[in-house]
Amino acid sequence: MTSGTTPSSTPGGVPPAGGLRRDLGLRDAVVIGLGAMLGAGVFGAVGPAAAAAGSWLLAALALAALVATCNAASTARLAGVHPLAGGAYAYGRRELGEWWGFAAGWAFVVGKTASCAAIALVAGAAVLPEHPGVPAALAVGVFTALTCAGVQRTARVTAVLVVVTLAVLAVALVAAAGGGLDPGTLVPSGSASPAGVLQAAGLLFFAFAGYARIATLGEEVSHPQRTIGRAVAIALTTVLVVYALVVVVVLGVLGTTATAASSLPLRDAVAAGPAPQLAALVTAGAAVAALGSLLTVMTGVGRTALAMARDRELPAPLAAVGPRSASPVVAQLVVGAVVVVLVLTTDLRGAIAASSTGVLVYYAVANLAAWARASRDPQRRRWERPVAGLGLLGCAVLVAALPPTAVAAGLAVLAAGLVGRWVSARRPARRRPRRAPGRG
Prior knowledge:
By secondary structure, this protein is mainly α. It has a single domain (about 20-425), classed as Amino acid/polyamine transporter I (Up-down Bundle), CATH 1.20.1740. It has helices at about 25-35, 40-45, 45-55, 55-80, 90-95, 100-125, 135-150, 150-175, 195-210, 210-215, 225-260, 265-270, 280-310, 330-345, 350-375, 380-400, 405-425. Helix 4 packs across helix 16, helix 8 (about 150-175) packs parallel to helix 11 (about 225-260) and helix 13 (about 280-310) crosses helix 14.
């Protein structure tokens, strides 16, 4: 199948052979975005970010929100133009060329597969701290079956996990704030380290990055030109409000130093309030949030692998779609199997740090594609190019702020994929599909 003829379902939702079915409405798309963003990060990312930014944590959150908003605008615009599985892989391929698309897709598949294992281990540690890999592997097995059963079932389970997560967050915020907040802890004091604020923004940005999951599933969203943009805006705005409330309450109760030293700041803020017995609820909520994020990430990786397999960037069998579920069954099974192996064999701490670079590479390609698209449309050039340019600059700055060893490892994995593609493309027996005329 050529890159220019990626299948998409008809308006009625019935897919052609090899295509995905447009089963997701606005509510489903919003739920998937919330499930991806309200993961373990809302409970655990605040501590490391506070350690980097100190009393300037709210400024770091605002910077992360700005970069996320620019990236979301570019992603939503492209998803409306190219409502296909694969997200920035599809956009980069059609707007910039095959190599750019491959770079985005490879960065996403490798980085997010590692993230799946780490997220599963976070949930597993809450259930069985001594052997987190066992419950993590069981969770991955169950979620693999769900992703193979169809995107509607995935959305339903995600909705349940999101509701539980939001309920836990609401109870925790009320319980923590019940003892009163110290407004003085919310005011930046002393000189801030620009590098520390940028690093904190980078940590918080990855917690927001799940909005792209909506675009990754673009081939399964009904009326994508209208639905995807609205879903991204609603999900991102909701999460920004939630994160701002969490940061304000945690800083107001614990202060900067205690927040920076905590692995679960919201739990410790609840423990310091008038209802410390509810702290265990926050621990359980973190596990549920991790599971919700895991399910959406696995779904996104499978769809990206499907899109790449259609274009022969990955093995062709990964493009197989189940006739009843209209789901990329083979790709999801392979992703699940790889994640199970990882959770049973490694802790992935170094690999996850390196995957952060891959996430920003993915979004950088999306912004470049949005810039290229806007450059050919005079009516949109005025506002879409500045937004895409600011998003691209934000990605570059946040990559530079990450630990050098993590950046080097991430770039090494990306380079290995590009070299492998170059070697494969030079084989005489390989015939790469040609782009269909008139695309993009």
